[in-house]
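Lab notebook, bench 4. We co-purified these components, and the gel suggests they stay together. Before we commit to crystallization screens, I want a quick structural picture of the whole thing.
Request: model the full complex, all chains together.
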Amino acid sequence: MSRAKSAETLSDAAAVSSRRKESRAEYKRALRYALYVITHPFDGFWDLTREHKGNLAAATTFLALFLITRVLKILCTSFQFFDAAVQHINVFEEMGSLLLPFLILCLANWAMTTLFEGKGRFKDIYIGMCYALVPYIMIQLPMILVSNILTYEEGSLYSVMLSISVIWSVFLVFVGLMEIHDYGPGKTFIFIIVTIVGACVIIFLALVCLSLLSDAVGFFVSLYREAAYRLN
Amino acid sequence: MMKKEVSFLMILIMLFTACTALADDSFNVNKDGYSTSYTYGYDYWRDVQESPDAYRVETVIDSVDLGLDVRMNKPQSLFARNNDLYVADTFNNRILQLEYRNGQAKLTRIIDHVAGGSPEHFNTPYDVYVDVDGNIYVADYGNLRVVMMDKDLNWIKEFTKPADATFDQSLDFLPKKITVDVAGRLYALVTNVNKGIVKYEADTTFTGFIGATPVNFSTFDYIWKKYFMTQEQRDASPSFVPTEYENMYMDKDGFIYATLTNFDEGALDAGQVNPIRRLNGLGNDILIANDRYPPIGDLWWQKGESSYFGPARLTDITVFDNDIYIVLDRIRGRLFGYDNQGIMLWAFGTRGNIEGAFTSPISLEHIGNDLFVLDQLENSITVFTPTEYGLKIYDAINKYQDGDYDESANVWTEVLKQNANYPMAFRGIGRTVLRQNKFEEAMEYFKMAHDRENYGRTFKLYRKEWIEKNALWIFLGVILLLIVPLILGRIKRMKWEVIMHEQSKIRRNAE
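Here is the predicted assembly.
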């Protein structure tokens, strides 16, 4: 009995560990797949979601890395190239100001494309966009180091690399949206504009919501105060 | 699940509003646009940094101190030559000559006429200039002339309306500001003339205009005005013409420093206007502005066009012999000192009725390092003398200009002890430390001063030195990087060969 039980737990543990091993391998594979995506965007983005070559964990890792890159760039780039007013910078504010628009834009894109035969789900869009950030991370992170061994006059190399990283990422965003939704280039372009408009609408609604809510809360707070004052 | 989503959305919204709220910070400036300190400076991020006082009020000279029977009435200009200070007491139709020594001023004489002139008495003289020989030039505004007389007030010559086609003959000749170069050529700012500074040869012949201000307008403005305005609107709107100068000062090298006050604050914001210009003989602006922010007075101001708001309106300028120049802002009653590279040394002053504050400052002069500010409503002259701190700044700059770099750095160190927010001091020390080949230390100082060029130059030297010092290690590192993969590849191949060999052996055995 006891032997059987122990054998069972043993096999359970083995199963868990093998599952864990499997998921870790999956995660690693998904991370490595980013290299394929950025070099073969058309195939890469198609398989990313259709063949489940990418996953949420890897995508979120890239997003986190992107935010970290951004913060490190502000804090660690040589002052010759990027002179940030460190005394006025709040790291969380900096990260939030990137994360929030990113998520709102993903949301807006999903909300719009889902009405117009977009094939992508929100998860697909999120994963795709996170993978599109990879060139930015891969170039900008080492360039932080490079900036510290270059002088001001040699800055052209630095600025060219930065531009490449941004152009590459923007290109990937475009191709990514095209493949994820199975759109043509023209339609993708139109929907990028529509997405931006949609994001503005979302922000507007959120602000209206908040101000109404704060009014409502304020009303009840003052009601309570008034009552408490009368009862005393 | 639903709840979770809602709370997530709430967090998003809150984060967003927090971001927008934080984006609106006005740093150190109070809500009215005034900083809290008397003397201050701007740091690299154009935040106001309080500073020790560079100047203190030595004395305030008014009509009573001078023993005048008739009080000064809206005096318009000051001029200093050696220890003599001349005041154009405009609406009393006279010039006052004072002698300033050791913080004391006493009236020497009252100049109210020119012997042998027609007419003899002045009429609202706006400005006065005295050359090295003591000859006096008076911008006799009401008599439509600039008159020159010797030191005993005998008429020598006068400059009147040019009989030239380039000068609009329908205008009266109303000279407001004058200056004279070493050759006796007269430069005058004339009311309603916007073609630049009116220039005369020493023999009173008119030789043209120099240094007309560049005209700024956008293509959009031009098209809008040309094709979309009615004639009435066009007449009412400002026309695209150069603006008149406010004031000028001739430095020891014969360059004219001129200030502009008549400009749009939007144009100033866009960097299209240089309120301070240094004109060469051709009338081109050769002022050096090497700082991150151009010399425009205050970098922060309350928006609006009025006598209290808007950008600094630099009503007068004076230039020291070491090319340090000081400008006077009539809006906020402030003085700004700049060095020859256009870097702000200090700023101080305010509007008000106490000592060191002005009601309507109109003119600025200097004798030595002492500054004189004329107030046309208070009818008084405020005398400022530099503090120990102010003198140290001048001392360090002078020593640097004389090539005495080490001494200069020592003085800058002294300055830093009194004001640790002084970028010029960091740069000055950095330069000297660099000359002593202490690259790492120099880099620290240049970084503090946010001096990219010097930092880059120093860093290049430092990098070279570092590579030379660590050449062996770098060499070893590179070899390691090249050889290790080679060896690893070899081993791998050998292993593979061994395996192949084993397999072939097995296969052969099986046969």
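Chain A touches chain B at residues 79-80, 83, 85, 88, 90, 93, 96-97, 100, 103-104, 149, 151-153, 203, 206-207, 209-210 (CB under 8 Å). Worth comparing against the SEC data before the next meeting. Helices of chain A lie at 2-39, 41-50, 56-76, 91-113, 122-132, 134-147, 155-181, 185-231.
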